[in-house]
Amino acid sequence: MGPRFWPVASGIDDPDYGEFPLKAFLGLEIEDGEPGQAEAWLDVGDDHMNPNGVVHGGVVFTLADTAMGRATMSILDEGQFCASIEVSVRFLRAVPAGRLRARVQVLHAGRRIVHLDGRVFVDGEEKPVAAVSGSFAVLGG
Q1: Mean pLDDT of residues grouped by 10 in the chain (141 residues)?
Q2: What domains appear along the chain, each with residue ranges and CATH number?
Q3: What is the side-by-side order of every strand in the sheet holding 29-32?
Q4: Which of 12, 37, 82, 83 is the most buried (most CB within 10 A)?
């Protein structure tokens, strides 16, 4: 049987969530909403910046991908897990600082592929900094 990913854990080695060192490395936090929804966030620090003084695009991608994985896991049966097939990030504006938050939701859940959509915001601002979409494979079970 594959890894088990629920409930969401705060540490990098929680037995119910699995090992996720990247979460600790980047300072990510993850929270479930209703089934099929999730949020992931991080407080932007110097380690998240590119040489131009704004958040590196890979950080935004990773935040969105992590939230999508969590939203997908929230609708799967025990013994199933997921993996990214494709994730698209449309960057709308640069992020110089703040708390970056990805909010995502499942658009359609098929038997083997889950499609998602979402936005990435800086807390306290209405306009998104990125629009995201993705497809995840359902594995196991």
Answers
A1: 40 54 90 94 96 96 96 95 97 95 98 98 95 97 79
A2: 13-140 (3.10.129.10)
A3: 29-32, 37-43, 99-109, 113-122, 130-140, 80-91
A4: 82
